[in-house]
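Homework help thread (please don't just give me the answer)

Our assignment gives two proteins as sequence + structure token strings and asks us to describe the second one. The first is just a warm-up. Here they are:
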Amino acid sequence: MELEVKILDISIDNIRRIMNENGAVLVKNEMQENYIHDFPDRRLLDKKGYARIRVVKDQETGEETVFMTTKKLLSREVYKKMEEYETVIENKDAGLGIFRSLGLELIENIRKSRESYQYKNTLVEIDVNDKSFVPFPYLEVESPSEEELEEVVKLLGYTMEDTSSLSIHEILKERGLSAETPEG
């Protein structure tokens, strides 16, 4: 189980500086393509879950890795608590074929860059999506412990009140934005 919060409208350079000054290690610098799937009746999304194929290209080595994942929201008070199952698969087409054979259909395809820093047991992830989908950069802070998550949020210069446990789609809706209408 992971605990996760988002921090919106960040200064990427400031986050990098704080991470570097505090000994965090850059563990990922990648481009991602995410294929989000659900059943035609949307039973996964209705229960705040989804199935995903993610193609990750390492920006340093050019190496590609493909992941098959399911996620389901367990609770969302201060933190988003997710149940997640993930495995590496041989290739994207095999994963997409498995999902199709199970009756899942492609809901959306999302591209983004992700830069991830490891600080203690916490990941600080800078996400920059295609501007037509999410027109602002944001952080995802993921930790196995509430105490460490709060410590990292404070280290970054924020309070827990500055964070959100909403999904990016819920944040876009709250701001009057959508993938179809990025300007609102």
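The one we have to describe:
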Amino acid sequence: MRLQAAIKNPNVSNEAKERSQHIFEDMESQPEEVHYPMKDEKSDTRVNAGYKATMKNPNVSTEAKENAEQILEERGAI
């Protein structure tokens, strides 16, 4: 973590070390939030395209093709 590196780095000023230490302590006291990327139409299109490619790929098992088809049906893409 960069904050810890700044705290231990002898080339960083005391003021910067104190600021980094304060930020680091604040981060530890707050619960970690999970951030998910925003879902948009473009990513849905790409995901659907991947499943469709799976269905046409001769190197993919029948089970995987059936799974891809089921997912596409659930998503309303076929």
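TA reply:
I won't write it for you, but here's a hint about the kind of observation we're looking for: DSSP finds four helices and no strands in the chain.
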